[in-house]
Write the C-alpha coordinates for this entry.
Amino acid sequence: MRRVLGWLDDRLGFSTTVKPLIEHPVPPTGWDYTLGSATLIAFTVQVVTGVALAFTYVPTPDHAYESLEFITQGAILGSVVRGVHFWGASAMVLLVCAHAAQVYLVGAFKYPREVNWLSGTVLLVFTFGMAFTGQLLRWNQDAYWAVVVGAAQAARAPLIGDWLTGILFAGPNVGGGTLTRFYATHVFMIPAIIFGLLGLHLYLVIRHGVSEPPVPGVEVDPKTYKQRYQELMHKIGEPFWPDAGWKDVVFALAVGSIVLVLAIWLGPPELGNKADPTVVQAYPRPDWYFLWYFALLALIPSSVEDWFIIGFPLVLGLMFILLPFMAPTGERSPRRRPWAVGLVVLFGVSVAALVNLGSSAPWSPVLATDLTLPSTVTASLTPTAAQGAESFQRRGCINCHSVAGVGGQRGPDLTQVGARLTPDELTWRILNGGRNMPAYGTALTPEEVSALVEFLSTRR
Amino acid sequence: MAEEDLVTRRSFLSRISLALSGLAAAVVSVPIIAYLLSPLLEPAPDEWRDLGLVENFQIGETVEVAYDEPSSLPWAGQTARTAVWLRRTGEREFTAFGLNCTHLGCPVNWRAGAELFLCPCHGGVYYSDGTVAGGPPPRPLVRFSVRIADDDRVQVMTRPLTQTISQA
Protein backbone atom coordinates (compact mmCIF):
# COMPACT_ATOMS: atom_id res chain seq x y z
CA MET A 1 0.00 0.00 0.00
CA ARG A 2 2.73 2.35 1.03
CA ARG A 3 4.64 1.55 -2.17
CA VAL A 4 1.55 2.19 -4.33
CA LEU A 5 0.97 5.57 -2.66
CA GLY A 6 4.66 6.40 -3.02
CA TRP A 7 4.50 5.51 -6.74
CA LEU A 8 1.38 7.68 -7.23
CA ASP A 9 2.94 10.58 -5.35
CA ASP A 10 6.10 10.39 -7.45
CA ARG A 11 4.17 10.31 -10.71
CA LEU A 12 1.58 12.96 -9.73
CA GLY A 13 3.89 15.21 -7.73
CA PHE A 14 1.39 15.69 -4.91
CA SER A 15 3.83 16.33 -2.07
CA THR A 16 6.19 18.45 -4.21
CA THR A 17 3.58 20.61 -6.05
CA VAL A 18 0.14 20.40 -4.48
CA LYS A 19 1.03 20.07 -0.81
CA PRO A 20 3.02 23.35 -0.65
CA LEU A 21 0.02 25.06 -2.29
CA ILE A 22 -2.57 23.92 0.21
CA GLU A 23 -0.11 24.50 3.06
CA HIS A 24 0.84 27.99 1.91
CA PRO A 25 1.13 30.31 4.89
CA VAL A 26 -1.92 32.42 5.68
CA PRO A 27 -2.46 34.98 8.41
CA PRO A 28 -4.75 33.94 11.29
CA THR A 29 -8.17 35.17 10.19
CA GLY A 30 -11.73 35.19 11.45
CA TRP A 31 -14.90 33.56 10.14
CA ASP A 32 -15.49 36.45 7.72
CA TYR A 33 -12.65 35.07 5.57
CA THR A 34 -14.66 31.90 4.80
CA LEU A 35 -17.22 33.64 2.54
CA GLY A 36 -15.18 33.16 -0.64
CA SER A 37 -14.64 29.44 -0.19
CA ALA A 38 -18.32 29.00 0.72
CA THR A 39 -19.23 30.71 -2.58
CA LEU A 40 -16.98 28.21 -4.36
CA ILE A 41 -18.69 25.30 -2.60
CA ALA A 42 -22.12 26.73 -3.49
CA PHE A 43 -20.99 26.91 -7.12
CA THR A 44 -19.85 23.28 -6.96
CA VAL A 45 -23.26 22.27 -5.60
CA GLN A 46 -24.88 24.17 -8.49
CA VAL A 47 -22.71 22.37 -11.04
CA VAL A 48 -23.51 18.94 -9.62
CA THR A 49 -27.27 19.50 -9.22
CA GLY A 50 -27.38 21.35 -12.55
CA VAL A 51 -25.80 18.43 -14.40
CA ALA A 52 -28.31 16.12 -12.70
CA LEU A 53 -31.23 18.31 -13.80
CA ALA A 54 -29.88 18.46 -17.36
CA PHE A 55 -30.16 14.65 -17.51
CA THR A 56 -33.95 15.13 -17.67
CA TYR A 57 -34.71 18.73 -18.63
CA VAL A 58 -35.85 19.31 -22.23
CA PRO A 59 -34.78 22.79 -23.40
CA THR A 60 -37.53 23.46 -25.95
CA PRO A 61 -40.68 25.54 -25.40
CA ASP A 62 -43.00 22.65 -26.25
CA HIS A 63 -41.69 20.39 -23.47
CA ALA A 64 -39.53 22.36 -21.00
CA TYR A 65 -42.38 22.96 -18.56
CA GLU A 66 -43.58 19.33 -18.73
CA SER A 67 -40.06 18.02 -18.13
CA LEU A 68 -39.81 20.21 -15.02
CA GLU A 69 -43.19 18.93 -13.83
CA PHE A 70 -41.79 15.42 -14.25
CA ILE A 71 -38.60 16.30 -12.36
CA THR A 72 -40.61 17.86 -9.53
CA GLN A 73 -43.43 15.34 -9.23
CA GLY A 74 -42.45 12.18 -11.12
CA ALA A 75 -38.74 11.56 -10.63
CA ILE A 76 -37.55 9.98 -7.37
CA LEU A 77 -36.20 12.80 -5.13
CA GLY A 78 -36.33 15.08 -8.19
CA SER A 79 -38.00 17.77 -6.12
CA VAL A 80 -35.06 17.71 -3.68
CA VAL A 81 -32.53 18.02 -6.53
CA ARG A 82 -34.47 20.96 -8.00
CA GLY A 83 -34.86 22.37 -4.49
CA VAL A 84 -31.12 22.24 -3.81
CA HIS A 85 -30.44 23.88 -7.18
CA PHE A 86 -32.88 26.69 -6.37
CA TRP A 87 -31.84 27.32 -2.75
CA GLY A 88 -28.21 26.77 -3.71
CA ALA A 89 -28.61 29.55 -6.29
CA SER A 90 -29.98 31.85 -3.60
CA ALA A 91 -27.09 30.89 -1.33
CA MET A 92 -24.53 31.53 -4.06
CA VAL A 93 -25.97 34.97 -4.87
CA LEU A 94 -26.04 35.90 -1.16
CA LEU A 95 -22.53 34.55 -0.52
CA VAL A 96 -20.92 36.18 -3.55
CA CYS A 97 -22.41 39.54 -2.49
CA ALA A 98 -21.35 39.03 1.13
CA HIS A 99 -17.85 38.06 -0.04
CA ALA A 100 -17.59 41.21 -2.18
CA ALA A 101 -18.84 43.35 0.71
CA GLN A 102 -16.35 41.78 3.14
CA VAL A 103 -13.41 42.22 0.75
CA TYR A 104 -14.47 45.85 0.27
CA LEU A 105 -14.86 46.44 4.02
CA VAL A 106 -11.39 45.11 4.95
CA GLY A 107 -9.79 46.88 1.97
CA ALA A 108 -8.45 43.62 0.53
CA PHE A 109 -8.96 44.98 -3.02
CA LYS A 110 -5.98 47.33 -2.57
CA TYR A 111 -2.42 46.80 -3.81
CA PRO A 112 -1.34 44.15 -4.86
CA ARG A 113 -4.74 42.43 -5.14
CA GLU A 114 -6.42 44.71 -7.72
CA VAL A 115 -6.84 41.91 -10.25
CA ASN A 116 -8.26 39.60 -7.55
CA TRP A 117 -10.97 42.24 -7.16
CA LEU A 118 -11.51 42.71 -10.90
CA SER A 119 -11.81 38.97 -11.58
CA GLY A 120 -14.17 38.78 -8.60
CA THR A 121 -16.27 41.59 -10.07
CA VAL A 122 -16.68 39.69 -13.34
CA LEU A 123 -17.54 36.53 -11.36
CA LEU A 124 -20.19 38.52 -9.47
CA VAL A 125 -21.71 39.75 -12.74
CA PHE A 126 -21.77 36.24 -14.19
CA THR A 127 -23.34 34.87 -11.01
CA PHE A 128 -26.24 37.25 -11.61
CA GLY A 129 -26.17 36.15 -15.25
CA MET A 130 -26.65 32.57 -14.05
CA ALA A 131 -29.50 33.66 -11.76
CA PHE A 132 -31.29 35.46 -14.63
CA THR A 133 -30.85 32.72 -17.24
CA GLY A 134 -31.71 30.06 -14.67
CA GLN A 135 -35.12 31.44 -13.71
CA LEU A 136 -36.04 31.58 -17.43
CA LEU A 137 -35.51 27.85 -17.87
CA ARG A 138 -38.63 27.20 -15.75
CA TRP A 139 -40.51 28.38 -18.84
CA ASN A 140 -43.54 29.47 -16.87
CA GLN A 141 -45.38 32.77 -17.25
CA ASP A 142 -42.84 34.56 -15.04
CA ALA A 143 -40.03 33.23 -17.22
CA TYR A 144 -41.66 34.24 -20.50
CA TRP A 145 -42.44 37.75 -19.31
CA ALA A 146 -39.00 38.11 -17.71
CA VAL A 147 -37.47 37.63 -21.17
CA VAL A 148 -39.82 40.25 -22.60
CA VAL A 149 -39.18 42.71 -19.74
CA GLY A 150 -35.42 42.12 -19.95
CA ALA A 151 -35.50 42.76 -23.69
CA ALA A 152 -37.68 45.86 -23.23
CA GLN A 153 -34.95 47.26 -20.96
CA ALA A 154 -32.23 46.39 -23.45
CA ALA A 155 -34.35 48.12 -26.11
CA ARG A 156 -33.74 51.43 -24.32
CA ALA A 157 -30.04 51.31 -25.19
CA PRO A 158 -29.24 54.02 -27.73
CA LEU A 159 -28.47 52.84 -31.30
CA ILE A 160 -28.03 49.15 -30.50
CA GLY A 161 -31.33 48.69 -28.59
CA ASP A 162 -33.23 46.82 -31.32
CA TRP A 163 -30.20 44.74 -32.10
CA LEU A 164 -29.92 43.70 -28.43
CA THR A 165 -33.58 42.62 -28.26
CA GLY A 166 -33.01 40.53 -31.40
CA ILE A 167 -30.02 38.88 -29.69
CA LEU A 168 -32.00 38.19 -26.50
CA PHE A 169 -34.95 36.70 -28.41
CA ALA A 170 -32.68 34.99 -30.96
CA GLY A 171 -35.20 36.06 -33.57
CA PRO A 172 -38.14 38.42 -34.04
CA ASN A 173 -40.14 36.84 -31.18
CA VAL A 174 -39.72 34.85 -27.98
CA GLY A 175 -39.98 31.31 -29.30
CA GLY A 176 -38.19 28.12 -30.25
CA GLY A 177 -34.86 29.88 -30.70
CA THR A 178 -34.99 31.75 -27.39
CA LEU A 179 -35.06 28.93 -24.86
CA THR A 180 -32.32 26.80 -26.46
CA ARG A 181 -30.00 29.79 -26.40
CA PHE A 182 -30.72 30.66 -22.79
CA TYR A 183 -30.18 26.99 -21.98
CA ALA A 184 -26.80 26.85 -23.76
CA THR A 185 -25.83 30.13 -22.08
CA HIS A 186 -26.84 28.84 -18.65
CA VAL A 187 -25.28 25.37 -18.81
CA PHE A 188 -22.27 25.79 -21.11
CA MET A 189 -21.20 29.33 -21.80
CA ILE A 190 -21.38 31.11 -18.44
CA PRO A 191 -20.17 28.08 -16.42
CA ALA A 192 -17.14 27.76 -18.75
CA ILE A 193 -16.35 31.44 -18.20
CA ILE A 194 -16.83 31.03 -14.43
CA PHE A 195 -14.47 28.03 -14.35
CA GLY A 196 -11.79 30.02 -16.18
CA LEU A 197 -12.17 33.09 -13.99
CA LEU A 198 -12.23 30.96 -10.84
CA GLY A 199 -8.89 29.50 -11.90
CA LEU A 200 -7.45 32.99 -12.26
CA HIS A 201 -9.08 34.17 -9.00
CA LEU A 202 -7.66 31.24 -6.97
CA TYR A 203 -4.25 31.47 -8.63
CA LEU A 204 -4.10 35.12 -7.58
CA VAL A 205 -5.07 34.21 -4.00
CA ILE A 206 -1.99 31.95 -3.91
CA ARG A 207 0.21 34.47 -5.71
CA HIS A 208 -0.56 37.44 -3.46
CA GLY A 209 -1.51 35.49 -0.34
CA VAL A 210 -4.60 35.90 1.82
CA SER A 211 -4.81 39.52 2.95
CA GLU A 212 -3.86 40.02 6.58
CA PRO A 213 -6.67 41.27 8.82
CA PRO A 214 -6.44 45.08 8.71
CA VAL A 215 -4.96 47.02 11.62
CA PRO A 216 -6.09 50.65 12.05
CA GLY A 217 -3.20 52.97 11.30
CA VAL A 218 -1.25 50.48 9.19
CA GLU A 219 -1.41 51.77 5.61
CA VAL A 220 -0.83 49.93 2.33
CA ASP A 221 2.30 51.30 0.63
CA PRO A 222 3.29 49.59 -2.67
CA LYS A 223 7.00 50.22 -1.87
CA THR A 224 7.00 48.21 1.34
CA TYR A 225 3.84 46.07 1.29
CA LYS A 226 5.15 42.85 -0.24
CA GLN A 227 8.22 42.69 1.98
CA ARG A 228 6.19 43.49 5.07
CA TYR A 229 3.64 40.77 4.15
CA GLN A 230 6.44 38.19 3.74
CA GLU A 231 7.93 39.07 7.11
CA LEU A 232 4.48 38.90 8.68
CA MET A 233 3.91 35.41 7.23
CA HIS A 234 7.27 34.29 8.63
CA LYS A 235 6.25 35.55 12.04
CA ILE A 236 2.55 34.67 12.37
CA GLY A 237 1.71 32.72 9.20
CA GLU A 238 0.16 29.26 9.60
CA PRO A 239 -0.48 26.61 6.91
CA PHE A 240 -3.83 27.15 5.17
CA TRP A 241 -4.56 23.43 5.53
CA PRO A 242 -5.67 22.59 8.12
CA ASP A 243 -5.12 25.59 10.43
CA ALA A 244 -7.41 27.96 8.52
CA GLY A 245 -9.15 25.47 6.23
CA TRP A 246 -11.17 23.80 8.98
CA LYS A 247 -13.20 27.00 9.38
CA ASP A 248 -13.97 26.97 5.66
CA VAL A 249 -15.15 23.37 5.95
CA VAL A 250 -17.38 24.08 8.95
CA PHE A 251 -18.95 27.16 7.35
CA ALA A 252 -19.50 25.42 4.01
CA LEU A 253 -21.10 22.48 5.82
CA ALA A 254 -23.42 24.87 7.64
CA VAL A 255 -24.43 26.56 4.36
CA GLY A 256 -24.92 23.16 2.69
CA SER A 257 -27.09 21.94 5.56
CA ILE A 258 -29.31 25.02 5.40
CA VAL A 259 -29.69 24.60 1.63
CA LEU A 260 -30.58 20.92 2.02
CA VAL A 261 -33.07 21.56 4.83
CA LEU A 262 -34.77 24.32 2.79
CA ALA A 263 -34.85 22.06 -0.29
CA ILE A 264 -36.59 19.30 1.67
CA TRP A 265 -38.77 21.49 3.87
CA LEU A 266 -39.88 24.22 1.42
CA GLY A 267 -38.88 22.50 -1.83
CA PRO A 268 -38.31 24.14 -5.20
CA PRO A 269 -40.43 27.17 -6.19
CA GLU A 270 -43.90 26.50 -7.60
CA LEU A 271 -43.83 26.21 -11.37
CA GLY A 272 -47.03 28.24 -11.73
CA ASN A 273 -48.62 28.52 -15.14
CA LYS A 274 -46.92 27.40 -18.32
CA ALA A 275 -45.46 30.13 -20.55
CA ASP A 276 -48.14 31.29 -23.00
CA PRO A 277 -47.86 34.62 -24.83
CA THR A 278 -51.64 34.76 -25.33
CA VAL A 279 -52.54 34.45 -21.64
CA VAL A 280 -52.48 37.97 -20.22
CA GLN A 281 -53.65 36.93 -16.74
CA ALA A 282 -50.09 37.04 -15.44
CA TYR A 283 -48.30 38.77 -12.58
CA PRO A 284 -44.75 38.72 -13.90
CA ARG A 285 -42.32 38.83 -10.96
CA PRO A 286 -38.61 38.04 -10.97
CA ASP A 287 -36.98 35.83 -8.32
CA TRP A 288 -35.92 37.72 -5.19
CA TYR A 289 -32.44 38.49 -6.51
CA PHE A 290 -33.92 40.80 -9.13
CA LEU A 291 -36.99 41.92 -7.17
CA TRP A 292 -35.12 44.98 -5.82
CA TYR A 293 -34.44 46.11 -9.39
CA PHE A 294 -38.06 45.43 -10.39
CA ALA A 295 -39.12 47.71 -7.50
CA LEU A 296 -36.57 50.35 -8.44
CA LEU A 297 -37.96 50.49 -12.00
CA ALA A 298 -41.43 51.18 -10.59
CA LEU A 299 -40.24 53.93 -8.25
CA ILE A 300 -37.95 56.09 -10.39
CA PRO A 301 -39.59 59.08 -12.09
CA SER A 302 -40.38 58.33 -15.74
CA SER A 303 -38.50 61.44 -16.90
CA VAL A 304 -35.14 59.89 -15.99
CA GLU A 305 -36.11 56.33 -16.85
CA ASP A 306 -34.30 56.08 -20.20
CA TRP A 307 -31.08 57.25 -18.55
CA PHE A 308 -31.54 55.10 -15.50
CA ILE A 309 -32.26 51.77 -17.23
CA ILE A 310 -29.05 51.95 -19.25
CA GLY A 311 -27.00 54.16 -16.91
CA PHE A 312 -27.56 52.39 -13.58
CA PRO A 313 -25.96 49.02 -14.53
CA LEU A 314 -23.15 50.86 -16.31
CA VAL A 315 -22.36 53.17 -13.38
CA LEU A 316 -22.55 50.29 -10.89
CA GLY A 317 -20.15 48.22 -13.02
CA LEU A 318 -17.83 51.19 -13.49
CA MET A 319 -17.73 51.80 -9.71
CA PHE A 320 -16.61 48.21 -9.15
CA ILE A 321 -13.96 48.40 -11.89
CA LEU A 322 -12.55 51.77 -10.85
CA LEU A 323 -12.50 51.05 -7.10
CA PRO A 324 -9.03 49.39 -6.88
CA PHE A 325 -7.54 52.15 -9.04
CA MET A 326 -9.20 54.98 -7.12
CA ALA A 327 -8.01 53.70 -3.72
CA PRO A 328 -5.05 51.33 -4.28
CA THR A 329 -3.20 52.47 -1.15
CA GLY A 330 -3.79 53.79 2.35
CA GLU A 331 -5.90 52.62 5.28
CA ARG A 332 -7.55 49.21 5.04
CA SER A 333 -9.36 49.05 8.36
CA PRO A 334 -13.12 49.69 8.23
CA ARG A 335 -12.69 51.68 11.47
CA ARG A 336 -10.74 54.29 9.50
CA ARG A 337 -13.03 54.08 6.44
CA PRO A 338 -16.47 55.14 7.74
CA TRP A 339 -17.65 55.98 4.21
CA ALA A 340 -17.03 52.40 3.10
CA VAL A 341 -19.01 51.04 6.05
CA GLY A 342 -21.80 53.55 5.39
CA LEU A 343 -21.95 52.60 1.71
CA VAL A 344 -22.24 48.87 2.46
CA VAL A 345 -24.93 49.46 5.09
CA LEU A 346 -26.84 51.82 2.78
CA PHE A 347 -26.65 49.32 -0.07
CA GLY A 348 -27.75 46.38 2.08
CA VAL A 349 -30.65 48.23 3.68
CA SER A 350 -31.83 49.65 0.33
CA VAL A 351 -31.79 46.27 -1.40
CA ALA A 352 -33.62 44.61 1.52
CA ALA A 353 -36.24 47.38 1.59
CA LEU A 354 -36.71 47.23 -2.19
CA VAL A 355 -37.05 43.42 -2.19
CA ASN A 356 -39.69 43.79 0.50
CA LEU A 357 -41.50 46.50 -1.47
CA GLY A 358 -41.20 44.56 -4.72
CA SER A 359 -42.83 41.51 -3.19
CA SER A 360 -46.01 43.47 -2.38
CA ALA A 361 -45.78 45.83 -5.40
CA PRO A 362 -48.28 48.41 -4.08
CA TRP A 363 -47.91 50.36 -7.35
CA SER A 364 -49.70 47.62 -9.28
CA PRO A 365 -53.47 47.53 -9.50
CA VAL A 366 -54.92 44.31 -8.09
CA LEU A 367 -56.10 42.44 -11.18
CA ALA A 368 -58.39 39.95 -9.42
CA THR A 369 -61.91 40.12 -10.84
CA ASP A 370 -63.69 38.91 -7.70
CA LEU A 371 -62.96 41.81 -5.33
CA THR A 372 -66.06 42.57 -3.26
CA LEU A 373 -66.54 45.18 -0.56
CA PRO A 374 -67.03 43.69 2.91
CA SER A 375 -70.62 43.43 4.16
CA THR A 376 -69.83 45.90 6.96
CA VAL A 377 -69.45 48.51 4.21
CA THR A 378 -72.41 47.55 2.03
CA ALA A 379 -74.86 46.75 4.88
CA SER A 380 -76.63 50.00 5.73
CA LEU A 381 -76.38 52.01 2.52
CA THR A 382 -79.12 54.09 0.89
CA PRO A 383 -80.27 52.62 -2.47
CA THR A 384 -78.25 55.22 -4.43
CA ALA A 385 -75.14 54.68 -2.33
CA ALA A 386 -75.55 50.93 -2.78
CA GLN A 387 -75.57 51.49 -6.55
CA GLY A 388 -72.42 53.56 -6.12
CA ALA A 389 -70.79 50.73 -4.16
CA GLU A 390 -71.71 48.35 -6.97
CA SER A 391 -70.14 50.70 -9.54
CA PHE A 392 -67.08 50.99 -7.31
CA GLN A 393 -66.52 47.27 -7.81
CA ARG A 394 -67.71 46.87 -11.41
CA ARG A 395 -65.97 49.95 -12.80
CA GLY A 396 -62.59 48.89 -11.43
CA CYS A 397 -62.19 51.59 -8.75
CA ILE A 398 -61.57 48.79 -6.25
CA ASN A 399 -58.63 47.47 -8.30
CA CYS A 400 -56.62 50.56 -7.31
CA HIS A 401 -58.37 51.90 -4.18
CA SER A 402 -59.01 50.13 -0.88
CA VAL A 403 -62.10 50.54 1.26
CA ALA A 404 -62.07 48.88 4.67
CA GLY A 405 -59.05 46.78 3.80
CA VAL A 406 -60.31 45.39 0.45
CA GLY A 407 -58.84 46.58 -2.85
CA GLY A 408 -55.63 47.74 -4.47
CA GLN A 409 -53.02 50.11 -3.08
CA ARG A 410 -52.20 51.88 -6.35
CA GLY A 411 -54.31 54.90 -5.39
CA PRO A 412 -55.14 56.45 -2.01
CA ASP A 413 -57.12 54.41 0.54
CA LEU A 414 -60.73 55.63 0.39
CA THR A 415 -61.97 54.18 3.70
CA GLN A 416 -62.39 57.72 5.10
CA VAL A 417 -62.45 59.75 1.90
CA GLY A 418 -65.82 61.31 2.80
CA ALA A 419 -64.11 63.16 5.64
CA ARG A 420 -61.33 64.41 3.35
CA LEU A 421 -63.14 65.54 0.21
CA THR A 422 -66.47 67.28 -0.41
CA PRO A 423 -68.93 65.74 -2.92
CA ASP A 424 -67.92 68.42 -5.46
CA GLU A 425 -64.24 67.59 -5.06
CA LEU A 426 -65.03 63.86 -5.43
CA THR A 427 -67.02 64.49 -8.61
CA TRP A 428 -64.26 66.61 -10.08
CA ARG A 429 -61.63 63.99 -9.33
CA ILE A 430 -63.68 61.12 -10.81
CA LEU A 431 -64.47 63.01 -14.01
CA ASN A 432 -61.02 64.49 -14.63
CA GLY A 433 -58.70 62.00 -13.00
CA GLY A 434 -55.43 63.00 -11.43
CA ARG A 435 -51.72 62.56 -11.80
CA ASN A 436 -51.93 58.77 -11.99
CA MET A 437 -55.70 58.35 -12.06
CA PRO A 438 -57.61 57.91 -15.32
CA ALA A 439 -60.36 60.42 -16.13
CA TYR A 440 -63.72 58.63 -15.98
CA GLY A 441 -65.69 61.47 -17.61
CA THR A 442 -66.46 59.47 -20.75
CA ALA A 443 -66.69 56.00 -19.22
CA LEU A 444 -69.36 56.72 -16.56
CA THR A 445 -72.93 57.97 -16.91
CA PRO A 446 -73.85 61.07 -14.83
CA GLU A 447 -76.12 58.86 -12.69
CA GLU A 448 -73.26 56.51 -11.98
CA VAL A 449 -71.00 59.41 -10.99
CA SER A 450 -73.50 60.82 -8.52
CA ALA A 451 -74.16 57.36 -7.06
CA LEU A 452 -70.41 56.83 -6.67
CA VAL A 453 -70.01 60.22 -5.01
CA GLU A 454 -72.89 59.45 -2.65
CA PHE A 455 -71.31 56.13 -1.73
CA LEU A 456 -67.84 57.65 -1.18
CA SER A 457 -69.27 60.53 0.88
CA THR A 458 -70.55 57.97 3.39
CA ARG A 459 -66.97 56.74 3.92
CA ARG A 460 -65.73 58.70 6.93
CA MET B 1 25.86 30.77 -35.28
CA ALA B 2 25.97 34.28 -33.82
CA GLU B 3 23.87 34.95 -30.77
CA GLU B 4 21.82 37.76 -32.38
CA ASP B 5 20.78 35.34 -35.14
CA LEU B 6 19.50 32.85 -32.56
CA VAL B 7 17.40 35.52 -30.86
CA THR B 8 15.99 36.69 -34.17
CA ARG B 9 15.18 33.12 -35.13
CA ARG B 10 13.40 32.59 -31.78
CA SER B 11 11.40 35.76 -31.97
CA PHE B 12 10.52 34.95 -35.59
CA LEU B 13 9.25 31.49 -34.63
CA SER B 14 7.38 32.92 -31.68
CA ARG B 15 5.72 35.60 -33.76
CA ILE B 16 4.81 33.34 -36.67
CA SER B 17 3.33 30.74 -34.28
CA LEU B 18 1.19 33.35 -32.52
CA ALA B 19 0.11 34.87 -35.83
CA LEU B 20 -0.85 31.50 -37.28
CA SER B 21 -2.81 30.57 -34.15
CA GLY B 22 -4.59 33.91 -34.23
CA LEU B 23 -5.43 33.46 -37.90
CA ALA B 24 -6.78 29.97 -37.25
CA ALA B 25 -8.95 31.28 -34.39
CA ALA B 26 -10.27 34.08 -36.59
CA VAL B 27 -11.11 31.71 -39.44
CA VAL B 28 -12.91 29.31 -37.11
CA SER B 29 -14.94 32.11 -35.47
CA VAL B 30 -16.36 33.43 -38.76
CA PRO B 31 -18.86 30.58 -39.30
CA ILE B 32 -19.61 30.37 -35.55
CA ILE B 33 -20.43 34.06 -35.22
CA ALA B 34 -22.44 34.11 -38.46
CA TYR B 35 -24.38 31.05 -37.29
CA LEU B 36 -25.10 32.61 -33.90
CA LEU B 37 -26.21 35.90 -35.47
CA SER B 38 -28.29 34.23 -38.20
CA PRO B 39 -31.67 34.86 -36.48
CA LEU B 40 -30.85 38.58 -36.64
CA LEU B 41 -29.89 38.55 -40.28
CA GLU B 42 -33.09 36.93 -41.55
CA PRO B 43 -35.94 39.41 -42.13
CA ALA B 44 -39.04 38.85 -39.98
CA PRO B 45 -41.98 37.75 -42.13
CA ASP B 46 -45.05 40.05 -42.24
CA GLU B 47 -48.32 38.32 -42.98
CA TRP B 48 -52.04 39.05 -42.70
CA ARG B 49 -53.68 36.77 -40.15
CA ASP B 50 -57.35 35.93 -39.99
CA LEU B 51 -59.12 36.90 -36.76
CA GLY B 52 -62.69 35.83 -37.67
CA LEU B 53 -65.86 37.29 -39.22
CA VAL B 54 -66.71 40.94 -38.62
CA GLU B 55 -70.06 39.92 -37.11
CA ASN B 56 -68.28 37.93 -34.38
CA PHE B 57 -67.32 41.21 -32.72
CA GLN B 58 -69.63 43.67 -30.95
CA ILE B 59 -69.30 47.38 -31.59
CA GLY B 60 -67.63 49.04 -28.59
CA GLU B 61 -66.19 45.84 -27.18
CA THR B 62 -62.54 44.95 -26.78
CA VAL B 63 -61.52 41.29 -26.88
CA GLU B 64 -58.28 39.36 -27.03
CA VAL B 65 -57.83 37.40 -30.27
CA ALA B 66 -55.00 34.88 -30.73
CA TYR B 67 -53.36 33.86 -34.00
CA ASP B 68 -50.33 31.96 -35.27
CA GLU B 69 -46.96 33.65 -35.14
CA PRO B 70 -45.43 33.59 -38.66
CA SER B 71 -41.79 33.15 -37.65
CA SER B 72 -42.13 30.26 -35.19
CA LEU B 73 -39.90 27.19 -35.20
CA PRO B 74 -41.38 23.67 -35.18
CA TRP B 75 -40.60 23.15 -31.48
CA ALA B 76 -42.00 26.51 -30.35
CA GLY B 77 -45.02 24.94 -28.58
CA GLN B 78 -47.27 27.58 -26.98
CA THR B 79 -44.94 30.36 -28.10
CA ALA B 80 -46.03 29.74 -31.71
CA ARG B 81 -49.21 31.65 -30.79
CA THR B 82 -49.59 35.34 -30.13
CA ALA B 83 -52.50 37.74 -29.75
CA VAL B 84 -53.82 41.30 -30.02
CA TRP B 85 -56.51 43.29 -28.24
CA LEU B 86 -59.14 43.87 -30.96
CA ARG B 87 -61.71 46.66 -30.56
CA ARG B 88 -64.62 47.10 -32.94
CA THR B 89 -65.14 50.86 -33.03
CA GLY B 90 -67.76 51.03 -35.80
CA GLU B 91 -69.72 49.13 -38.44
CA ARG B 92 -66.57 48.41 -40.44
CA GLU B 93 -63.90 49.89 -38.21
CA PHE B 94 -61.51 47.98 -36.01
CA THR B 95 -58.48 48.88 -33.92
CA ALA B 96 -55.87 46.32 -32.83
CA PHE B 97 -53.46 46.93 -29.93
CA GLY B 98 -50.35 44.97 -29.00
CA LEU B 99 -50.59 43.09 -25.70
CA ASN B 100 -47.39 44.64 -24.41
CA CYS B 101 -47.23 47.63 -22.11
CA THR B 102 -45.01 50.33 -23.63
CA HIS B 103 -43.19 50.72 -20.31
CA LEU B 104 -41.39 47.36 -20.09
CA GLY B 105 -43.47 44.96 -22.16
CA CYS B 106 -45.70 43.26 -19.56
CA PRO B 107 -49.14 42.03 -20.72
CA VAL B 108 -51.91 44.63 -20.33
CA ASN B 109 -55.33 43.42 -19.18
CA TRP B 110 -58.56 44.94 -20.57
CA ARG B 111 -61.13 45.79 -17.89
CA ALA B 112 -64.50 46.13 -19.61
CA GLY B 113 -66.17 47.63 -16.51
CA ALA B 114 -63.54 50.31 -16.10
CA GLU B 115 -62.92 50.61 -19.87
CA LEU B 116 -59.22 50.62 -19.17
CA PHE B 117 -56.17 48.52 -19.92
CA LEU B 118 -54.24 47.74 -16.70
CA CYS B 119 -50.63 46.56 -16.56
CA PRO B 120 -49.75 44.14 -13.72
CA CYS B 121 -46.06 45.08 -13.42
CA HIS B 122 -45.56 48.76 -12.63
CA GLY B 123 -49.12 50.06 -12.72
CA GLY B 124 -49.44 51.41 -16.28
CA VAL B 125 -53.03 52.32 -17.27
CA TYR B 126 -54.41 53.06 -20.77
CA TYR B 127 -57.80 54.29 -22.05
CA SER B 128 -59.83 52.22 -24.51
CA ASP B 129 -58.18 54.05 -27.44
CA GLY B 130 -54.74 53.00 -26.19
CA THR B 131 -53.65 56.42 -24.88
CA VAL B 132 -51.90 56.56 -21.50
CA ALA B 133 -54.23 57.17 -18.53
CA GLY B 134 -51.66 56.82 -15.75
CA GLY B 135 -48.47 55.22 -14.54
CA PRO B 136 -45.04 55.05 -16.13
CA PRO B 137 -45.76 54.15 -19.82
CA PRO B 138 -44.00 56.65 -22.10
CA ARG B 139 -46.38 56.22 -25.09
CA PRO B 140 -49.74 54.78 -26.15
CA LEU B 141 -50.23 51.06 -26.78
CA VAL B 142 -48.78 49.93 -30.12
CA ARG B 143 -51.37 49.73 -32.91
CA PHE B 144 -51.31 46.84 -35.37
CA SER B 145 -52.63 47.27 -38.95
CA VAL B 146 -56.12 45.80 -39.35
CA ARG B 147 -58.21 45.35 -42.51
CA ILE B 148 -61.49 43.76 -43.48
CA ALA B 149 -60.94 41.30 -46.33
CA ASP B 150 -63.45 40.78 -49.18
CA ASP B 151 -65.25 37.93 -47.43
CA ASP B 152 -65.99 40.11 -44.36
CA ARG B 153 -63.20 38.65 -42.31
CA VAL B 154 -61.08 40.78 -39.97
CA GLN B 155 -57.35 40.44 -40.56
CA VAL B 156 -54.36 41.74 -38.65
CA MET B 157 -50.84 42.33 -39.93
CA THR B 158 -48.35 40.37 -37.83
CA ARG B 159 -45.59 42.31 -36.16
CA PRO B 160 -42.39 41.03 -34.55
CA LEU B 161 -42.27 41.46 -30.77
CA THR B 162 -38.86 43.13 -31.17
CA GLN B 163 -40.67 45.95 -33.03
CA THR B 164 -43.58 46.12 -30.58
CA ILE B 165 -41.27 46.71 -27.60
CA SER B 166 -38.82 48.83 -29.62
CA GLN B 167 -38.23 52.32 -28.24
CA ALA B 168 -36.86 53.65 -31.53
Remarks:
- The mean pLDDT of chain A is 94.
- The longest helix of chain A spans residues 176-208.
- Chain A has 20 helices and four strands.
